[in-house]
Design brief:
By secondary structure, this protein is α+β, with helices and mostly antiparallel strands. The chain folds into 7 domains: 10-162, Rossmann fold, CATH 3.40.50; 167-235, membrane protein fhac (Ubiquitin-like (UB roll)), CATH 3.10.20.310; 242-312, Ubiquitin-like (UB roll) (Roll); 318-402, Ubiquitin-like (UB roll) (Roll), CATH 3.10.20; 408-483, membrane protein fhac (Ubiquitin-like (UB roll)), CATH 3.10.20; 489-560, Ubiquitin-like (UB roll), CATH 3.10.20; 564-889, Porin (Beta Barrel). It has a 16-stranded antiparallel beta barrel with strand order 22-23-24-25-26-27-28-29-30-31-32-33-34-35-36-37. Strands 1, 2, 3, 4 and 5 form a 5-stranded mixed sheet that branches. Helix 1 crosses helix 2 (26-33) and helix 3 (49-66) crosses helix 6 (146-161). It is elongated and about 135 Å long.
C-alpha cells in the first residue's frame, strides 16, 4: 500500500542516494529529501464534523499536490492512527507509522471550529526525537481561507524536514555605499526556497551586472534552520574627478552636461561608455562627424577613481548639396522647400544651424516628400532612405524617388446611413475640388463627415473612404461608406481639478447639457469658452463611454492658474516728468468668476484712482453687471482738474461674437488754480461741474488671445450722451469707433492694421467741457509723441485745448524675436490728427511717425516697449519718444 509520495520506490531511493553521494546533482538530493515526511489527515473538532472533514481533506490534498505529494486517505490513516483518542498520537504510534512508511518525519494537525472561527494546530515530529516537535498555529474567520492556511503549514513542515537543503536567510555584505535593498532586488532566491546553486549563480551574475562591484562571491553556511547565504561584494571606488580635454569648438560645460558623470558616485564602466556615446552624438549634432572620444580610468588611490574623456575634434562637416533622384513632376527647388534639412550658408548657418546633418530630421524629410507626392496624386510614389556621402569636408545627400503614375479624382459618392441628402453631403467634400487625389484632403473630408455625424448625436459614427483605381485615364473613384451607429445622449457632466473656481462658474459656460443629444461641436465650443475665461492653464472636455451604448459622460478636467494680476507702467515726458501707472486685479474673485480691480496713475501732476467690480454672468445669465468708483486729479499748465464719481454698467451678447454694453456715470468735476489769461474754453468749463451721462457700446472680438494676437479682429463703436433728461451741467454727445485686424503671414510674421475715429457734439453751446475733448499721442494711439500731446491750440493763448474730432491709424508687422521666450518685435507706422471745434476734417494735415517696438510676454507679465520717430516734425514737437508699459500676475 502506497502511504507516501509518488517517489516512495526503494530502487529509486537507492539511485537518488547514490547520485547524492556522487555529488552529480543537487536537485536530485532535494527530491530524495522530499520523501522523508508523511502527512496525516487532520483531526476535526466541530459540531458538523462531516462537512468540515470533507473540506479539510480536499484542501490538504491540494496543498500537498503543489509540492508533488499524494495525500494519504483518511481511511488508510485510520488503520494506523485512532482519531478518537487524544491528539496528537503518542510516540509509540508515531514509531509504528515510521516503520510502516519508512519516513523520518510525521506531520499531524487538528482543525477546530469555534462558532464562526477556525483554528489550525500543526506539528512536525522528528521520529528520532518525538518529544520535541516543531509546532505552528493559525486561525481564520472564514472556511474559504482553509486552503491558504494548509498551504502555509505544509510549506513550513517541508522546510523543517528538509532544513539542510532550505535557504534560511539571504543578505549582502561588504557594501558601504550601495543600499542593501538595491542588491536584494537583484536576487531572485528568497528565504524558504530550496537551496539551488544554479539559481544562486544566476543571482550572482545579476548582482555583478549592476556595475558597481569589482568582485561578488557567495558564502553559504549551515544552521539549524537551513543555509545562510551571504553575497559578499567588493565595491568599485568613487569617482573623485572627471577631466575633459580637447574641447575647442564646443564649450566644456556642454560636453560635461552631455557626459553626465557625477563625481562622488560609484564608478560604473558601463555608464562611462554611455557617456562617450553621448558626447560623440553631441559633436555630431553640431556637425563634427570625425570627432574621436575616448575614456580612460585611473586610480590615484584604492578608494578613488579619475575618469578622463579625451576628445580629438575633427573639422566641421556640413551639407554641401542636396539632390533628388527620379523626380520629374516637381523641380528640385520645390522639393527642397518641403524638407527641413538644408545646405550650409555662411550668412545663416551660424544662427539656425542650417547645413548640419541630423539623421532623425533627414528621415522625417523623406516622409515629408512621400506625403507631398501622396497629396498631389502620386499614390504609388516611393521615397527611399536618404543616401549620405562624405567627400572630404562636405556631405552630399540624395533622396531616391519613384514617382509612379499620377491619378486624377474621378467619381465621388457617399453611401450608407445618410442623415442629409446625398448631394448635400457630397457638396461638403473638398476632394471634389482637387484635380488630383490628395491624401490630406481625403483625411480631412473623412474627419469632416465624422464630425458632422457627431454634431448630430452619432458619437460612434464611422466613415470609411474606399479608393478604386482605374488604369484607364489614371483616375480614382472615391466611395465614402458611412455607418452612423446609435444616437447618443449626454449622461453626466463631471468637473474635476477646480479647487477654487466654483462649479456653477464652469457649468454656465458649458454648451453640453445633461440629457441632451451628443454634440461634438458643443464639446469644442465648451473648451473654447472655458479657455477664454482666463482662469485656467489647461482645459480638456472629454466624452467618456458608459455602460449604456446610447449614453456618454463628459469629463471637464481643468488646471487652475493664478488669476490675480498687477500692471506697472512707467514713462517720462517734459510735462509730467516721471509717470507711474499701476493696476491690481483679481479676475476670479473668491472663485465666483467676478472681477475686482484697483487702478492708480501717479505723477508729479496726476493722481487718478479707480475701483471697479464686474460680474460677467449675473445670476448665471448672459448679462454682465458692474460698478466703478473713481477720483481723478490732474494738474495742467493752466488749471487743475479734480473729478469724483461713480457709475454702473451692463453688457450682454448681441449676435455671435458681438456684445453690447450700457452704462450710466455721474461725475462731479472742478477746475481750480486757473491761470490768469487762460483760454476761454478753459474758463467756460469751470462752470460745468456735474456730468450725468449714459454710454452705449457695440463690440465684436474674434482675437485668438488678448495680448499680441496672431489672428482675428476687434471692432467697436460707442456713443456717450450727457445732459438732456439726465440732468447735470454738461450737454454733449460723443461718438467713437475703432477697428483692429491681425493677419498671419509667412515665417510666423503678423500684419496688424488699426483705424479709429471720433467726434464730439455740444448739445448746447459751450456745454462741451475741455476735458471731454480729444487728445492723441502715446502708447495707445500715435507712438513717438508724448501722451495726449497732439492737440489743437488756442489761437490767442497758444494752449492745447483738444479738439472735437480725431482719427488715427496703425500699420505694423510683428515678427518673432525669441520664440522660446515669447518675445516679438514690431515695425510700425502711426498716423492721425485731432481737429479743433471750429475746424473741419482735414486729411492733408497728418501727424506721422515710424518706429520699432518689442512685445514680450515676460515672467512679470505683458511688456511693451516702443520707439517712434516723428516723420514730419513741426515747431515745438519732439523728434522722437520712447514709450514703455509692463504688467504681471500674482
Amino acid at each position: 500500500m502506497q502511504l507516501l509520495t509518488r517517489f516512495q520506490n526503494t530502487r529509486l531511493s537507492g539511485l537518488v542516494l547514490l547520485l547524492v553521494m556522487a555529488g552529480l546533482c543537487c536537485g536530485a538530493a532535494v527530491q530524495a529529501m522530499e520523501q522523508n515526511t508523511v502527512f496525516l489527515p487532520l483531526k476535526i473538532n466541530s459540531p458538523d464534523p462531516q462537512r468540515l472533514t470533507a473540506a479539510a481533506d480536499t484542501a490538504l490534498e491540494e496543498a500537498l499536490a503543489e509540492q508533488g505529494y499524494q495525500a494519504i486517505s483518511r481511511s488508510e490513516a485510520a488503520r494506523v492512527v485512532d482519531y478518537r483518542k487524544s491528539w496528537p498520537p503518542g510516540a509509540a504510534v508515531l514509531r509504528s507509522l515510521a516503520k510502516t512508511t519508512d519516513a523520518d518525519y510525521v506531520a499531524v494537525g487538528s482543525l477546530t471550529q469555534l462558532g464562526a472561527s477556525y483554528s489550525l494546530d500543526y506539528a512536525v515530529f522528528d521520529l528520532l526525537q518525538p518529544g520535541a516537535p516543531y509546532t505552528s498555529f493559525r486561525e481564520s474567520d472564514s472556511l474559504e481561507d482553509l486552503r491558504r492556511l494548509l498551504s502555509e503549514a505544509v510549506g513550513e513542515a517541508m522546510s523543517y524536514a528538509n532544513r539542510s537543503f532550505t535557504v534560511a536567510s539571504i543578505a549582502p555584505a561588504g557594501n558601504e555605499r550601495i543600499d542593501a535593498g538595491a542588491i536584494l532586488r537583484k536576487i531572485s532566491t528568497e528565504p524558504g526556497d530550496l537551496y539551488d546553486p544554479a539559481g544562486l549563480r544566476r543571482d550572482l551574475k545579476a548582482v555583478f551586472g549592476m556595475g558597481y562591484f569589482d568582485n561578488v562571491e557567495i558564502e553559504a553556511t549551515d544552521s539549524d534552520t537551513g543555509k545562510k547565504i551571504l553575497f559578499r561584494v567588493e565595491e568599485k571606488p568613487l569617482i573623485g574627478q572627471v577631466v575633459i580635454s580637447g574641447t575647442d569648438h564646443i564649450k566644456e560645460k556642454d560636453v560635461r552636461d552631455a557626459a553626465n558623470i557625477p563625481v562622488n558616485t560609484i564608478l560604473n564602466p558601463a555608464k562611462v561608455n554611455d557617456a562617450v556615446a553621448r558626447v560623440r552624438e553631441l559633436y555630431k549634432s553640431k556637425g563634427y562627424y570625425n570627432t574621436q572620444v575616448a575614456a580612460t580610468i585611473n586610480y590615484p588611490n584604492p578608494e578613488s577613481a579619475e575618469v578622463r574623456l579625451v576628445i580629438e575634434e575633427g573639422d566641421k562637416i556640413t551639407i554641401e548639396e542636396i539632390t533628388f533622384q527620379g523626380n520629374t513632376a516637381f523641380e528640385d527647388d520645390e522639393l527642397a522647400e518641403i524638407i527641413q534639412t538644408g545646405t550650409y550658408s555662411w550668412w545663416l548657418s551660424w544662427l539656425t544651424e542650417a547645413g548640419v546633418l541630423k539623421m532623425d530630421i533627414l528621415n522625417q524629410d523623406a516622409a515629408r516628400i512621400g506625403a507631398y507626392y501622396q497629396n498631389h496624386g502620386f499614390i504609388e510614389a516611393k521615397v527611399g532612405s536618404p543616401q549620405v556621402e562624405q567627400k572630404e569636408d562636405s556631405l552630399f545627400i540624395t533622396f531616391p524617388i519613384e514617382e509612379g503614375p499620377r491619378y486624377r479624382v474621378g467619381m465621388v459618392e457617399v453611401e450608407g446611413d445618410l442623415i442629409e441628402d446625398k448631394e448635400q453631403l457630397i457638396s461638403r467634400l473638398q476632394i471634389r475640388q482637387e484635380p488630383f487625389l490628395n491624401r490630406q484632403v481625403l483625411r480631412e473630408d473623412t474627419t469632416r463627415l465624422t464630425d458632422l455625424y457627431a454634431e448630430h448625436g452619432y458619437a460612434f459614427a464611422r466613415v470609411f473612404p474606399k479608393i478604386d483605381k482605374t488604369d484607364q485615364g489614371k483616375r480614382v473613384n472615391i466611395l465614402f461608406k458611412v455607418s452612423k451607429g446609435s444616437l447618443v445622449y449626454f449622461n453626466r457632466v463631471e468637473i474635476q481639478g477646480n479647487t477654487r473656481t466654483r462649479d456653477n462658474v464652469i457649468r454656465r459656460d458649458l454648451q453640453v447639457k445633461e440629457g441632451g443629444v451628443f454634440d461634438s461641436k458643443a464639446i469644442r465650443t465648451s473648451t473654447q469658452k472655458l479657455q477664454r475665461l482666463g482662469f485656467f492653464e489647461e482645459v480638456t472636455v472629454t466624452p467618456k463611454p458608459t455602460l449604456n451604448e446610447d449614453q456618454m459622460d463628459v469629463l471637464v478636467d481643468i488646471k487652475e492658474k493664478s488669476t490675480g494680476q498687477f500692471s506697472i507702467g512707467a514713462g517720462y515726458s517734459s510735462s509730467e516728468n516721471v509717470l507711474v501707472m499701476g493696476e491690481i486685479t483679481e479676475d476670479n474673485f473668491l472663485g465666483t468668476g467676478n472681477r475686482l480691480a484697483l487702478t492708480a496713475n501717479l505723477s508729479s501732476k496726476t493722481a487718478r484712482y479707480n475701483l471697479n467690480f464686474t460680474n460677467p454672468r449675473i445670476f448665471d445669465s448672459k448679462v454682465s453687471a458692474g460698478f466703478d468708483v473713481f477720483n481723478w486729479e490732474k494738474k495742467y499748465d493752466d488749471y487743475t482738474k479734480d473729478s469724483t464719481g461713480a457709475g454702473v454698467r451692463f453688457g450682454h451678447p448681441f449676435f455671435e461674437r458681438w456684445y453690447s454694453y450700457y452704462g450710466y456715470t455721474i461725475a462731479d468735476t472742478h477746475l481750480t488754480d486757473i491761470k490768469d489769461g487762460a483760454s476761454q474754453v478753459i474758463i467756460r468749463s469751470k462752470d460745468i461741474n456735474l456730468t450725468s451721462s449714459v454710454r452705449f457700446s457695440l463690440v465684436r472680438d474674434t482675437r485668438n488671445r488678448g495680448f499680441s494676437p496672431s489672428n482675428g479682429s476687434r471692432n467697436s463703436v460707442s456713443v456717450k450722451y450727457a445732459g438732456g433728461p439726465l440732468g447735470g451741467d454738461a450737454q454733449f454727445t460723443k461718438v467713437e469707433g475703432s477697428s483692429s485686424w491681425w493677419f498671419p503671414m509667412v515665417w510666423e510674421t503678423i500684419f496688424h492694421a488699426k483705424a479709429a475715429a471720433g467726434q464730439a457734439f455740444a448739445n448746447e453751446e459751450d456745454k462741451l467741457p475741455v476735458y471731454e475733448h480729444f487728445y492723441l499721442g502715446g502708447m495707445n494711439s500715435i507712438r513717438g509723441f508724448e501722451s495726449l500731446s497732439i492737440s489743437p491750440v488756442d489761437p490767442v493763448t497758444g494752449e492745447k485745448i483738444g479738439g472735437d474730432k480725431m482719427w488715427y491709424g496703425t500699420l505694423s508687422v510683428i515678427f518673432p524675436l525669441l520664440t522660446d521666450m515669447g518675445m516679438q518685435g514690431e515695425v510700425f507706422t502711426d498716423f492721425g490728427n485731432v481737429y479743433g471745434v471750429e475746424d473741419n476734417w482735414d486729411f492733408s494735415e497728418i501727424k506721422k511717425t515710424a518706429g520699432v517696438g518689442i512685445l514680450w510676454l515676460s515672467p512679470l507679465g505683458p511688456l511693451r516697449l516702443a520707439w517712434g520717430f516723428n516723420l514730419d516734425r513741426q515747431e515745438g514737437e519732439d523728434s522722437s519718444n520712447w514709450d514703455f508699459s509692463m504688467g504681471g500676475t500674482f
